[in-house]
Amino acid sequence: MRFEETAHEMVAETETSAEVLFVCTEQACGRRVVVGKARPRLTVIDRGDFAARHAGSLGGVVMDDVEAA
Q1: pLDDT digits (tens, 9 = 90+) for 53-67
Q2: Is 65 left (phi over 0), alpha (psi -120 to 50) or beta?
Q3: Does the pLDDT at position 2 exceed 60?
Q4: How many domains does one find in the chain?
Q5: Does residue 4 lie within any of the structural domains?
Q6: How far from 22 is each of 7, 45, 63, CA to CA, in Å?
Q7: Average pLDDT over residues 13-31
Q8: Which residues partner with 25 through β-bridges?
C-alpha cells in the first residue's frame, strides 16, 4: 500500500551566526526547527504536521529528508 506524500516548504525566519530558525510556510502546519550552522544539530521547536515531508535551505545550510526515530 502506498500513500501520497504531502510536501511542505521551510523558510528561514531569522538567523544568528550559529543557528537558523526555519518555519513551515503552510499556515495550518506550524512546524518550527532550529538548525545549527557550525555544529550540525536539529532542534524541533514545534512538531507541526509530522506526516508531511519538510524541506528548505539557506545558502550552505540545507534541511532535507530529516527522519526521526
Answers
A1: 999 887 665 556 666
A2: left
A3: no
A4: 1
A5: yes
A6: 15, 10, 9
A7: 94
A8: none
Question: What 3-state class would DSSP assign to 8?
Answer: strand
pLDDT in the model for residue 68: 59
**Cα 60 to Cα 57, 66, 68, distances in angstroms:** 8, 16, 22
Which cell is 2 given?
502506498
**Cell triple for residue 69?**
526515530
Q: What is the DSSP letter of 4?
A: P
Please report whether residue 27 resides in a domain: yes
Please compute the mean of the pLDDT values over residues 23-50 and round it to a whole number: 92
* 52 occurs within a structural domain: yes
The three cell numbers of residue 67 are 527522519
Q: What is the domain extent for residue 31?
A: 1-38+46-57
